[in-house]
Amino acid sequence: MEIGSGSSVLGIGLRGLQQSSQSINQSANEIAQAGTLQASREGTGSTQDLVEPLINMKIEQNIFDASANVVKVGDEMIGSILDIKA
C-alpha cells in the first residue's frame, strides 16, 4: 500500500471527500437559485426544485462521512504498521 498513490486507501478516501464536497456545493447552489427572481420567471422556482438537491445533499453527506471513515481507518492502519515496525 502506497500512501501517495491514487489507489491507496487514503487516496480513495480523500477523493471521495473531494467529490462529495463538490456535489454538496452544487446542490447548495441549486437550492440558493431555486428562489431567485430569474428562476421564478422561467417557471423553475417551485418547491419541487428544492426536493432533488436536498435529497442529493443528504446522500452526499453520507458519502462524505463514509469517506472520512475510510481516511480514519487508513490512518489507523498506517499507525499500526509503524508501531509494528518500530
Order of helices and strands: HHH
- How would you classify the quaternary structure? single chain
Total number of strands? 0
Shape: rod-shaped
- Cα gyration radius (Å): 19 Å
Q: Outline the low-pLDDT stretches.
A: none
Cα(first) to Cα(last) distance is 18 Å
The percentage helix is: over 70%
* Count of discrete structural domains: 1
Strand content: under 5%
Main beta sheet: none
What structural category arises from helix and sheet content? mainly alpha
Mean pLDDT: 84
Summarize the structure.
This protein is mainly alpha-helical. 80% of the residues lie in helices and 0% in strands.
Structural write-up:
The protein is mainly alpha-helical and 86 residues long. It contains three helices and no strands. It is rod-shaped, with a radius of gyration of 19 Å.
Give the tags.
single chain; mainly alpha; 3 helices
Question: How is this fold's topology laid out?
Answer:
Blueprint: H1 9-34, H2 37-41, H3 48-85
